[in-house]
Amino acid sequence: MDTLLHSQTLDGATYHAKQDTSTGGVARNIAEGIYKIYGNVNLISAVGNDQNGTHIRGLLPAHCTSSIVTLGNCPTASFSVLLDRRGDCLLVVGDMDAHQAITPEWIKSHAQLMQQSPMTVIDANISEAAMTTVFEACLQHNRPGESD
């Protein structure tokens, strides 16, 4: 996968680098760990209708992904980091637009998911209003909720 960075401070040269790709998302990693230990978790997130979205959905069983929105008009969120030889961060570029699909209205229309699952994990890239709505629904159904 190529990543095109637009910046006026870089000189346009090609720099030798090594690339490593991993399935990230702190919330997704937490949800996967909870699933492996306890068997059920509710992950509230969004992915694109693309190869990365399919891969992410495939890491958890279907009953744990029912609250992941799949978007046809937006790619799965991505996060690219450029590190120097010491591993220090030089540049971070992220496309998190997919998470705008998680709105308070969407959460309210899917509140039963928080009632049906013993724990809900949310992606911290959703809006503050959406987070508040999730926590209110979790409290209403006497369920714990965690954010990354």
UniProtKB/TrEMBL annotation:
Gene Ontology cellular component annotations, sorted alphabetically: cytoplasm
Pfam annotation, one family: PfkB
Tagged with keyword Metal-binding: yes
Transmembrane regions: none
GO biological process: phosphate-containing compound metabolic process
Domain Carbohydrate kinase PfkB: 20-142
Keyword set, alphabetical order: Metal-binding
Domain of life: Eukaryota
Record SUPFAM superfamilies: Ribokinase-like
InterPro entries: PfkB_dom (IPR011611), Ribokinase-like (IPR029056)
GO terms for MF: hydrolase activity, acting on glycosyl bonds; metal ion binding; pseudouridylate synthase activity
Protein's name according to its UniProt entry: Carbohydrate kinase PfkB domain-containing protein
